[in-house]
Design goal:
Number of helices: 10
CATH class: Mainly Alpha
Helix content: over 70%
Distance between the termini: 27 Å
Order of helices and strands: HHHHHHHHHH
Shape: globular
Strand content: under 5%
CATH topology: AhpD-like
Number of strands: 0
Radius of gyration: 17 Å
CATH superfamily: AhpD-like
Largest sheet: none
Length: about 190
């Protein structure tokens, strides 16, 4: 069920911003962006900062890798909006949509490096089961992933486990392929702030 707060409840400044974005982009503001403008002091400002740091902060993972992690976590959560948004963004970041599609179709046979595969495997287990153990971490580290990369991947996982649940709870409207692509361009240019 779509909650009505995504359709109204914004201050005048936000409403004007939404209209300007729609005018210049030709697309409505996605619900993910609308949500952070609703009570920004309670959720939006903190969520934007955390997600931006996880997705665009200093990391040994590329932006494309982190967008793929977001898409993968979203696939495990079966969050249609977030799968669409981050598949488009990862595809654009890698400049290789077939690689992203292969990972989302079958992680084990996808043409990716083993450190990324092991990390995605661990993120998938954490997302599905809500826990990982020492043996899971040993497997990731044995694949050549650094402690810092594990922390960075866990931050992406946390951000998108929250976002996926909000997307489904609020009934985020799916965008057209052109809308997801426009959102991907924006995210790659400006990040999550």
């Amino acid at each position: 069920m779509r909650l009505d707060i995504l359709n109204r409840g914004y201050d005048r400044k936000s409403k004007v911003l939404f209209a300007v974005i729609r005018l210049f982009s030709g697309h409505p503001v996605p619900d993910a962006a609308r949500l952070v403008f609703y009570r920004p002091d309670f959720y939006g400002a903190r969520a934007k900062e955390f997600t931006h740091e996880a997705m665009r902060g200093a990391s040994d993972w590329s932006v494309a890798d982190r967008e793929l992690m977001a898409a993968y976590v979203s696939k495990v959560n079966e969050s249609a909006f977030c799968i669409g948004a981050h598949t488009a963004t990862a595809s654009r970041a890698y400049q290789d949509g077939s690689r992203v599609a292969a990972v989302l179709d079958d992680l084990e046979s996808a043409p990716i490096e083993e450190p990324l595969r092991a990390t995605l495997r661990m993120l998938g287990k954490l997302t599905r089961d809500g826990t990982v153990g020492a043996s899971d971490m040993r497997d990731v580290l044995a694949a050549g992933v650094s402690d810092r990369q594990v922390r960075d991947a866990l931050a992406v996982c946390a951000a998108f486990n929250v976002t996926d649940r909000l997307a489904d709870a609020f009934g985020f409207e799916l965008l057209s392929p052109e809308g997801f692509d426009a959102g991907a361009k924006y995210l790659l240019k400006r990040g999550y702030r």
